[in-house]
Amino acid sequence: MKGNANETVQEFTTRFNLVYKSIPDDMKPPPSLSLLHYPDAFDPDMAYQLRERVPATLEEMQQNTASVEANLLTKKSKSKLERTEKKVVFKEYPSSSSDVKLNTMTKTMERMMDRISITDRQAKPLLRNPNIRD
To answer: How far is the C-alpha of 71 from the C-alpha of 76, rounded, in Å?
Structure first.
């Protein structure tokens, strides 16, 4: 059995138990086999988390599903919130072509001023004509 996309873990567990109990005893798989395949009904993250807890019985695994689902939902909501925050930060600082042009012009002016100051420092002092009085 697989869980449906719009089905909660509790709904799936109820449906699973109803189907499992409806199987005749002579055809019913042993509980250990059901325990082995129960996690496969969920997405890989959930299945991994369920198996990692190493429950002793199917009932114990089914009880764990609610807490595992809650943990995964919390993790997904946090990552979604972080992605949203990153997007907001990105959108707060849009760059326009006029900003780029202004930055380029500012940098060009700074370089020109640096060149002028270097040229002034390197220039020889002007010789004054001694015949001219102030």
So the answer is: 9
